[in-house]
Specification:
By secondary structure, the protein is an alpha+beta fold. The chain folds into two domains: about 30 residues, no CATH class; about 100 residues, Immunoglobulin-like (Sandwich), CATH 2.60.40.10. The protein contains one helix and seven strands. It has a seven-stranded antiparallel β-sheet, with no helix packed on it. Strand 4 and strand 5 form a beta hairpin. It starts with a helix and ends with a strand.
Length: about 140
Amino acid sequence: MHALTKFGIATIAAALIGALSIAGPAGAFDLKAGTGEKLAPTKVQLGIVSPKNNVCPGFGKWTAWVQTNKPGKIDILLVRKGGDVYGPYPVTTVKGTNGVILGSYTQALNVADAVDAQYRVVIPGSTLASNWAPLIADC
């Protein structure tokens, strides 16, 4: 082996050992970007627009807004009070110009039957839940 190659390998090994002794074993190879903070929801809200004049058949929509501690993708579930759970629906949050990290999900509703129900949004793995919002329509 060439003397320069031996010297180069020895230098790299010494530098690596030095880095381990200065930074410690955990910090020397910690290559995580950013703070390593896990994506977490901080606030969730729900709005429902019932069909015009609360008459069916008709169209409405629901929108959920989610705030998080950092930008990312988070799943939400729509829950009917005393009934079904729908989803998951993906929400991608982004940092806005005012510093708020927010995302939303909107879905159209085709209301064909009479309904008088309340819904809310929950986030799996979190204790956060939105307000209850009514969906009302008479046929």
